[in-house]
Prior knowledge:
Shape: elongated
Number of helices: 27
Distance between the termini: 42 Å
Strand order of the largest sheet: 2-3-8-5-7-6
Helix content: 40-55%
Amino acid sequence: MSLALRIALREMRAGLRGGLRGFRVFLLCLMLGVAAIAAVGLVREAIRQGMAEQGATLLGGDAQYGFTYRRATDAERGWIASHAARLSETITMRSMIGVGDAFTLTQIKAVDAAYPLNGRLVLDPPGAVLDEKEGVPGAFVDGVLADRLGLVPGARFTLGGKTFEMRARLVSEPDSTGRDTLFGPRTLVSLAALDGTPMLAPGSLFDSAYRVQLRPGQDLATLKRQAAAQFHGTGMNWTDSRRPSPGTERFTDQLSAFLVLVGLAGLAVGGSGMSSATSAWISSKAETIATLRALGASAGLVRRVFAVQLAALTVLGIALGLLLGAGLVMAAAPQIAGALPFPVAVGLSVRPLASAALFGALTVVLFTLWPLGRMTRIGAARLYRPGRAGGWPGWGAAVSSAVVLIVLAGAACAETGRTGLSLAVLGGVAAALVLLALMGRGIGALARRLRPLGRGRPVLHLALAALGGPGGEGRAVMISLGLGLTVLSSIGQIEAGLRSAIRNDLPAVAPAFFLIDILPDDRAALLDRLAALPGVTRTETAPMLRGVIDRINGRPAREVGGDHWVLRGDRGVTFAETPREKLTAGSWWPAGYDGPPQASFAAKEGTELGLKLGDRIGVNILGREIEATITSFRDVDFSTAGIGFVLTLDPAALAGAPHTEIATVYATPAAEAPVLRLIGHDFPNVTAIGVRGALERVGEALASVSKAVLLAASVTLAVGFVVLIGAAAGGEGARAREAAVLRSLGATRATVLASFALRAALAGAVAGIVAVAGGVLAGWAVMDRVMNLPYSIAWGPAFAIVAAGVGAVVLAQIAFALRPLGLRPARVLREAE
């Protein structure tokens, strides 16, 4: 056994006899940070494993061939069937479901007899069928929708102008991820019931999917290559069981990445507490260090002795954190599984636990290298003299800290898969910590300048003297609470801004309804009928098709524009003789233009994709590949919730293409029910999407995300509070001596306690104000610069943050001031000699 290890074990045994009192803050900070990251990682791993294990069930088969606006041709279907053991066709769309004069939006899924290829459809009552009875087709209706319309098995309703009979409540679908019902609950019908109806007319908005089960020995990767070659240029979209729901996977990864980074922010706040605890521990061991150095021990030996002890404490803190994180996840496993639309097995997994342990260990190393470095540069004679060790730790510690910081950043990027976001958040946390430390020094400087205001005011004078004196409390408060409060303040401002935009700003200018699937022949009659309804103020229409932007200047669009939202899946495309929006660059095609296809692109999205005038855009519409030259850019404001298209083509480019019209209806709330009745009775092929209802569902989704983020942010605040309590507890002796001196000079207990409370309130208020300023800045940046929405300060959350800062510091300080005030001054002063 090495000498360093023997000495370290002896010191640890001696320390354990006195308990871990000096390391409670160290262990709590490490434990909470590791627990947060471990919990997020375990939930994310459960979702990933669930999607991987249930891939074929969630997709509805081993692979899926998808088409937009059309069904597969006989030849295409024949090729698909020849390369599969089993085949099932489904069609999804939106439509209006009505009972009497009550109409609402529903998501229709039309299926064939082979559905579902994988998994089980759960119905109430079980065993119901969709076959026609007395000439009326059957339907399975989502329970929420059935309750809303008062439907029970056997009741009849209209769907797209056709009568259906409810046969059962739709309890669950095996191929649902919960992301496909944003605009309404599900209604399941048979494909045969929709054949020949206007809902499948050319130009109608629907998606067709052909799910297949492979033959034994077939390889997905090989089939994917064959399908890409066979369906090149047809607009076919391939999905397979390896990634059954890319959208759900992307959302889960993005949210969990952000939560992991918030957990790292908590570890960073805790790191300051770990550093302070380590420095205090080293100071308490000054005589031991001096003795070792006087006996000839090298600086390296001393550093190894203390590093071994810190390593043991780190292992203990990480183990406790992993147990806490895993325990919380396992305790909440039923709730987590119940909240997800597909089955998951929440359990323990090595990878997320190892990642959390790694982050905890790297954080400890990063924040303890500095005090360890300072310790080994101090001679024995100086260590025997009273006073706290400090100063430059040496280039070795500085370089090692930089290396650890780089490794930590690399690990964060690898864990989240978001390099830019990870570096931005970690850089922001580092900058915030530096700024908060400087603000802490600023509090001291300001207190010293304001000290004359305390003349004749003993409580204020004592508070300012304490904040402005050596080792003032301002820096500890700013570091411990500042970052946590700033994170909470930022979330509060962003959430309030989004809710304000959803509830107040958008509805003031947004339409009441979006109407889709308007047949060109019905357009004039529909507009006339709408205009005659009281409360309908205006309507706007535009022709609409859907297409996939797949080429930019002859190259695959994803190679040029990356994962931009415009390039994800199909987008609305229109054509127009005149521009709807203001041109920002270029010129519009002349009236009656009949030359090579030209395109006008949304200016903001074009800039993000790096497009310029003269670039060529390839778009696949109904299996037809169109390449158009960009001749203009338009200022498209999507925040109004009105009609807006990223891509507009000249009319000749889409001549003869089957299409439908869309319309926006601006109406008062009182006119919404008459509009729905008109659409449901007289224009059954048209689907009305309520904007207010959609915004409410967006608000509900936002609330769910906010809860998760606030929970993670609360860990940061909890760690900060632990650091604050540690600082308060560590200063208990100094407050006892201060109270003893003041009481010996005639100050009453009330005066001393009031001075303690006032200095705490001032420091907490400054921390809260700095946090509010950071939150306002973050709220403005996200709302104005990222989302292009108006921003105004949410004063409620702002005042709550300031109050939280003041309350937390005052409570912590008073809690550790009561015992010193109860001691006799003479006894305290004698012990201090």
